[in-house]
Specification:
The protein has eight helices and eight strands. It has 250 residues and is α+β, with helices and mostly antiparallel strands. It binds adenosine monophosphate (AMP). InterPro entries: Ribonuclease_T2_eukaryotic, RNase_T2-like, RNase_T2-like_sf, RNase_T2_His_AS_1, RNase_T2_His_AS_2.
């Protein structure tokens, strides 16, 4: 009996961290979304850099977004929603980003999660939006949320994965969309969803890569949701040139 009680308490103790980690994760998986700066900048709107410093030709993080496997049509109390909801957002208005909590991550964030927007040119504004809209629904605290996104990017280096598969940024070449998806699937074990935008010549180009990640924010999982990301069978993967940016900023 004593022994049973001991093992029972041990089981409770062992399960407690799992239960706590899952306590407020009312979603099914994360999208870890990264964007190609060449495609962000190579548009009518163009882009701007914080401190006018051009970042490296590397994918940048857009966000780590909690998502539902199936869009919801009723709220948590069973009441019908006006519009179906495919992800939770803005989960805690009383928890705005406190930059002092992520100070140690700032150099890493500036390198890997920098703003490209000409509206603010302030990376903190971008991080604050991502935290308020998505991070507050992640079940993580602010530091854990940004660290998880940075660690996942470092673990699966998309730029390197594509380069190793012969998918090189180029002004001239176009690539088979399935070749891009396959390269990421082979390297990570999970086929991503892809989103495209259009350049100034109205050509379709790879814009964002959505990798599916478990609710722990660490492990790749199979993407359960198909996405129409506006891509075509053949897409551009443009070189990251700063010239169009300089025009925007004058
Ligand atoms: P979300 O609400 O998470 O879907 O993010 C969309 C918002 O993020 C829009 O306001 C975009 O302008 C902004 N955004 C997307 N990429 C960037 C970027 N690289 N730098 C700054 N803002 C961005």
């Amino acid at each position: 009996m004593m022994k049973l009680q001991y093992y029972g308490s041990l089981a409770v103790l062992l399960l407690l961290p799992v239960a706590l980690a899952c306590a407020d994760t009312d979603f099914d998986f994360f999208y870890h979304v990264q964007q190609w700066p060449g495609s962000y900048c190579d548009t009518k709107e163009g882009c701007c850099f914080p401190g006018n410093q051009k970042p490296a030709a590397d994918f940048g993080i857009h966000g780590l977004w909690p998502n539902y496997a199936v869009c919801r049509t009723v709220d948590e109390d069973g009441r019908p929603l006006n519009q179906s909801k495919c992800w939770p957002d803005f989960c805690n208005a009383s928890d705005p980003l406190d930059p002092s909590l992520i100070r140690d991550l700032e150099p890493d964030l500036l390198r890997n999660w920098g703003t490209l927007s000409c509206k603010s040119k302030e990376s903190t504004a971008f991080w604050s939006h991502e935290w308020t809209r998505h991070g507050t629904c992640s079940g993580m605290d602010q530091h854990s949320y940004f660290l998880a996104a940075l660690e996942y990017k470092a673990r699966f280096n998309l730029t390197r994965i594509l380069l190793d598969a012969g998918i090189v940024p180029s002004e001239e070449r176009t690539y088979c969309l399935s070749r891009i998806r396959d390269a990421v699937a082979e390297a990570t074990g999970s086929a991503p969803n892809l989103e495209c935008n259009r350049n100034e010549r109205n050509e379709t180009q790879l814009y964002q890569v959505y990798q599916c990640v478990g609710v722990d924010g660490r492990s790749p999982v199979r993407c359960l949701v198909a996405m129409d990301g506006g891509c075509t069978g053949m897409v551009k993967f443009p070189a990251f040139c700063a010239t169009e940016t300089i025009q925007v900023m004058r």
